[in-house]
Write a structure and sequence with these properties.
The complex is a heterodimer of chains A (102) and B (241).
Chain A (H helix, E strand, L loop, with lengths): L2 H24 L2 H5 L1 H24 E2 L2 E2 L3 H14 L4 H15 L2
Antiparallel strand pairs in A: 1-2
Helix pairs in contact in A: 4-5
Chain B lengths: L2 H28 L4 H10 L3 H12 L4 H11 L2 H13 L3 H9 L3 H8 L4 H31 L12 H10 L6 H17 L7 H17 L8 H5 L12
Helix pairs in contact in B: 1-3, 1-8, 2-8, 3-4, 3-9, 4-11, 5-7, 7-8, 10-11
The chains are: A mainly alpha (102), B mainly alpha (241).
Chain lengths: 102, 241
């Protein structure tokens, strides 16, 4: 992505994220108390995180493939199950992938 | 909790977030953002998961719209925090504009964990400011450090993003509907990869998951509760929960 386009994305994304925070502090309670709105707001992060994990593990542009990333993410999942701290999870995943690429 | 304990916990959360900021800075630069763009996101967007997501979409070759939209959608939970915080903070005018930027997982968790409104306000502002300062400091160090690496993928940096997302996702997978939404979203995203441009599969997954969430639990009251929505993967001290 050209730098100018990237800057537009950075600024637009930041403005959007700020707008959402401001809305939460400003919007009348009843709007966000709607159970459907609450349900979607609670589920969206789960859906996005799961999709991001899947795509960033097996996709390369518009191609699908299995490489050393799969092992790294597998190690991250095991580390999370073992209740490892955040940095240990990330570093264990990186070390696994890096070792397989040697 | 005494006022001093509140501030101490706030600083502790800030330090943990600083370490998290290091990995964000490194990943952002490895994904193709400049050091300045990487730091601008930490100052202006200031919501970790959204920043990681945006950087991930850019790194995968996604378009500007897809990357910004993913970041904004991931930030929707901050609106729910604001709703819970507005009565506690009672911030008006310029103070509200400033407070808004500090509404994140950690500051919301610390505020609602306190026993009375004055401490809730202290918890919110202390945590918000501590995280803001150390998150940005971590970002600068991580971004400049990654800039010195010649080939980030040799060090497995491309797996740091998904690994971080695994850590962010796991506390939210508390019940069957959450698992269902996660599995459907992952499947939809992967199946879509060959057919649409980079970044779009994730957005597609979000739309499908929103429909599943609505249809699967029509009128269901459970919205996951506070704990599910909090903790951006950072170790919030036990007493802060």
């Amino acid at each position: 992505m050209p730098s100018t386009t990237l800057w537009i994305a950075v600024l637009a994304g930041s403005l959007g994220c700020y707008g959402i925070k401001l809305a939460g502090l400003s919007v009348p309670d009843r709007v966000l108390e709607d159970p459907r709105v609450r349900r979607i707001a609670a589920m969206l992060p789960i859906a996005l995180l799961a999709a991001l994990i899947a795509v960033q593990t097996v996709a390369d542009g518009t191609a699908l493939g299995v490489d050393a990333r799969v092992a790294g993410v597998g190690v991250a999942i095991v580390a999370v199950l073992l209740r490892a701290p955040f940095l240990v999870v990330v570093l264990a995943a990186m070390a696994t992938t890096a070792l397989l690429r040697l | 909790m005494s006022r001093r304990a509140v501030v101490r916990d706030a600083v502790g959360i800030g330090v943990a977030t600083g370490a998290f900021g290091l990995s964000y800075g490194a990943i952002a630069v490895a994904s193709g953002l400049s050091v300045l763009q990487t730091c601008a996101l930490s100052v202006l967007m200031f919501t970790g998961a959204s920043q990681f997501a945006m950087v991930g979409v850019v790194g995968a070759g996604g378009g500007a719209l897809a990357s910004a939209a993913t970041a904004v959608l991931l930030g929707t939970r901050n609106a729910l925090y604001g709703l819970q915080l507005s009565a506690l903070l009672r911030a008006r005018g310029p103070r509200r504009l400033l407070a808004s930027q500090l509404v994140i997982d950690e500051s919301a968790a610390m505020a609602v964990a306190q026993d009375d409104p004055p401490r809730a306000r202290l918890g919110f502002w202390a945590t918000g400011v501590a995280v803001f300062v150390l998150w940005n400091l971590g970002t600068v160090v991580g971004a400049v450090g990654a800039d010195l690496l010649e080939d980030p993928s040799r060090f497995g940096l491309d797996v740091a993003g998904p690994a971080a997302f695994v850590a962010l996702l796991s506390p939210r997978l508390r019940d069957v509907p959450a698992w269902t939404v996660a599995m459907v979203a992952a499947l939809v995203a992967v199946v879509a990869v060959p057919f649409v441009s980079a970044g779009v599969p994730v957005l597609l997954a979000a739309v499908v998951a929103a429909v599943v969430a609505l249809v699967g639990r029509r009128g269901g009251a459970s919205d996951g509760g506070r704990d599910d929505e909090c903790g951006d993967g950072v170790d919030v001290p036990q007493e802060a929960r």
